[in-house]
Amino acid sequence: MNITRRTFTAALSLTGFAAALGLSPWQLVSQANAQTAAEINQAGELGDMAMGSKDAPVTIIEYASMTCPHCASFTKDVFPQIKTNYIDTGKVRFIFREFPLDQVALAASALARCVAKDDAPKYFAIIDILFKQQNDLASDALGTINRVGKQAGFSEQMIKDCVQNDPKIQKGILDVREHAYSKLKVNSTPFFFVNGTVVKGDISFDAFEKLIKPLLKS
Question: What CA–CA distance (Å, rounded) separates 193 from 11?
Fold first, then answer.
């Protein structure tokens, strides 16, 4: 294997995140200090990865880390219902933004970006695979990223060039995380904005539905 741990040496300042991980109560909350719509809707240099109609009356923005178990649980158990009931019917636009909490999550997100380029369906397919193999990421990050990348048609050298040698990709991901942390007060994952209302943590489909339905009537 050519990729070494240097693959994951992009500068990740995790100061302040350790306290947030696992310590913030998972709960549905209203936005105490409302960020501006412009701040919430600001996409990073890499652009947003989204699905659903641009004209949908409801927009859900998720900030997630590829190594976050609650994020994987949302993707597996809740997101498919949201997609079927609301995204595919034109009622919700869903935006996924990377918020890596460690170096492995950064590398996995970089791989998804490199493989997909501007192809959102391909991007969502890759992150779905990575979330499903989250246990493998934890036990063998290098091997898992190599395997997923090769399944997507990348050579080992292409994977290495992506996750180690492409500063634009890593900087783009980290800039989005910094904006979310400093401007939007994102301090845990998964973290959602539903038309500007904050939703934090491992939330059920029913909880999302209670937020979405009134917005469709307004």
Answer: 27
Convert the pLDDT of each residue in 126-185 to its tens digit: 999 999 999 999 999 999 999 999 999 999 999 999 988 888 999 999 999 999 999 999
Q: Which residues of 171-210 are buried (b: 16+ CB within 10 A; e: fewer)?
A: ebbbebbebbbeebebbbbbbbbbbeebbbbbbebeebee
Cα(142)–Cα(168) distance, rounded to whole angstroms?
Answer: 21
**b/e for 9-42, b at 16 or more Cβ within 10 A?**
ebebeeeebeebeeeeeeebeeeeeebeeeebee
Domain ranges of the chain: 36-216
Structure tokens at 129: 């695979």
> Which CATH number applies to 36-216: 3.30.365.10, 1.10.260.40, 3.40.30.10, 2.60.40.3450?
3.40.30.10
- Structure-token match 């990575």, residue found: 130
Which tens digit of pLDDT belongs to each residue from 86-122? 999 999 999 999 999 999 999 999 999 999 999 999 9
Interacting residues of 180 by C-beta distance below 8 A, sequence separation 6+:
63, 97, 99, 186, 191
Beta bridge partners of 64: 98
